[in-house]
Amino acid sequence: MTNILVFGAGKSSSYLIRYLLEHAPKYFWQITVADSNINAALERIGDHSFGTATQIEIHEDIIRKRLISNADIVISMLPPALHFIVAHDCLELKKNLVTASYVSDQIKSLHTEARNSGLLFMNEIGLDPGIDHMSAMKIIDEIERLGGDIYSFKSYCGGLVAPSSDNNPWHYKISWNPRNIVLAGKSGAHFLLTGFEKQLEYNNLFKEIEVMNVPGVGKLAAYANRDSMNYMELYGLDKVKTMLRATFRYEDFCIGWNAVVKLDLTNEVNLYHTKDMSYKEWFMQATQSIEGKTPEDRIKQVAEGNALAVSLIDWLGLYNDEKIGLLSEASSADILQKRLEEKWKMSPQDKDMIVMHHEFEYGRKNINARLTSTLVVEGEDKTYTAMAKTVGLPMAIFTKLLLTGKIKNLLGVQIPTMKEVYKPVLKELISYGIDFNESYLD
After folding, report:
1. Can you tell me the distance from the alpha carbon of 361 to that of 190, in angstroms, rounded to the nearest whole number?
2. Based on the domain organization, do 31 and 109 belong to the same domain?
3. CA angle 337, 304, 172 (to 5 degrees)
4. Are 14 and 76 in a shared domain?
5. What are 152-201's pLDDT values in tens digits?
6. Residue 200's beta-bridge partner residues?
7. Does a structural domain hold residue 394?
8. CA atoms of 416 and 170, how far apart (whole Å)
9. Would you tell me how many other CB atoms lie within 10 Å of the CB of residue 369?
């Protein structure tokens, strides 16, 4: 019996765990799901005979190490900051590790030791990062195989609400980690555009957006995402003149969120005693450095008079007389997250939507060409979301390929940019409806 340990039973784990359980009888897998919320773990396992749920606080060293010691492979669906704790144990206990998160400097520092120990720590094998890497490298390798020279690459991805469930003015509902939504964009952006490096600070990120028509979807807005420049080396595109990675939202969302950022409502440092505090009292304290006697005046000040921004923030109820009700001290980011989880909550039958879109410009045989590749996936409901599907299935498929010996000789800290990974993973994803529509425009 092969023991697979999954840390985390949150929003993005549903498809991952279902896939592993469905394949467990064939491969004699035992699936252990460990989470601080035992009910969440039990819900994911159900009554499956090859599944076990267990409760754990991740900082409980003895229990955590015992679970890892009994596993043949570990999958971490924990918040990114906690992966290193698990990775360190995996290194000590000689276990392979799979995560969907960006490779942190801490994880990267384990590369040599993991490689020398014959271990593989596969990261960034979810959606974004993950499917973006694999689908991009598939096209890059094909263009280069045909003798083409790529000079522009743009990659966009976003988790959105499906049109059939879009019934609020923000055109957004939460289908993944709400904390990541609150903190999105804080690192700013660094990218290359027509030969010129551009940097955007957090305060301007949601104002400097690109509005575009996406095949099969329509009009979307995109804001630049993190440091795109790193991907020139990762993808072998050191000669490109444009390298941009960006996140999709609807334009109204960006208008509203631009005001939220400039109001400093995502601040994680300043703390408030929120037990008996109203949202309005918090709002006025948090924005006291901004001119204006009323909340509306202050929003208009940062939003340059945009009435839509005022109405969007008003809809969230960020300055009404309702009590916040958090029992301990909380930052503005904590308070905002609580409100967003209430206002952007998905109802049981709501559907989300994932949109990924690549644009390549390249030259071949003295002819310039343009290629687009677009993925649109809709979820089933609140539990089996498109986000969970596109994050979880690549991880599950890779785990199966590794355990069955289909992927060999990969060691150390890796991301899925190599053919031996992306070809079989993308091929199986097609059978689950995760399939790109490519269009070549000469």
Report:
1. 20
2. yes
3. 35
4. yes
5. 999 999 999 999 999 999 999 998 888 989 999 999 999 999 999 999 99
6. 189
7. no
8. 34
9. 15
Cα–Cα distance measured from residue 27 to residue 8, given in angstroms and rounded to the nearest whole number? 22
Q: How far apart are CA 427 and CA 422, in angstroms?
A: 8
CB 239 within 8 A of CB 287: no
Q: Which domain holds residue 79?
A: 2-123
Q: What are phi and psi of 328, to 5 degrees?
A: -115, 175
pTM of the complete model beyond 0.85: yes
The rounded distance, in Å, linking the Cα atoms of 271 and 330 is 5
Length of the chain: 442
pLDDT tens digit string along 277-323? 999 999 999 999 999 999 999 999 999 889 999 999 999 999 999 99
Name the nearest CA neighbour of 8 among 154, 176, 142, 173: 176
**Could you give phi then psi for residue 7, rounded to 5 degrees?**
-90, 115
Sort strands 189-193 and 226-227 into parallel, antiparallel or unpaired. Answer: parallel
- Tokens representing 397? 């498929």
Identify the domain boundary among 283, 312, 343.
Answer: 343
In the beta sheet, which residues pair with residue 368?
Answer: 363
Tell me which amino acid residue 250 is: Y
In this structure, the number of other CB atoms found within 10 A of the CB of residue 119 comes to: 20
Can you give the CATH number for the domain in which 60 is found? 3.40.50.720
In this structure, are 148 and 213 located in the same domain?
yes
Bridging pattern class, strands 96-99 and 73-76: parallel
CA-CA distances (angstroms) from residue 123 to 75, 100, 273, 411? Answer: 10, 5, 39, 12
CA 292-293-298 angle, 5° bins: 35
Q: Calculate the CA dihedral of residues 321, 322, 324, 325 and round it to 10 degrees.
A: 130
- Per the CB < 8 A criterion, the answer to whether 155 and 240 are in contact is no
Residue-by-residue DSSP string for 266-284 = T-SS-EEE-TT-BHHHHHH
**Residue 160 to residues 220, 318, 364, 413, 430: CA-CA distances in angstroms?**
10, 22, 36, 31, 21
336 & 352 share domain: no
**Domain match, 105 and 135 both:** no
At 320 the three-state DSSP class reads coil
Considering the domain architecture, whether residues 168 and 188 belong to the same structural domain is answered as yes
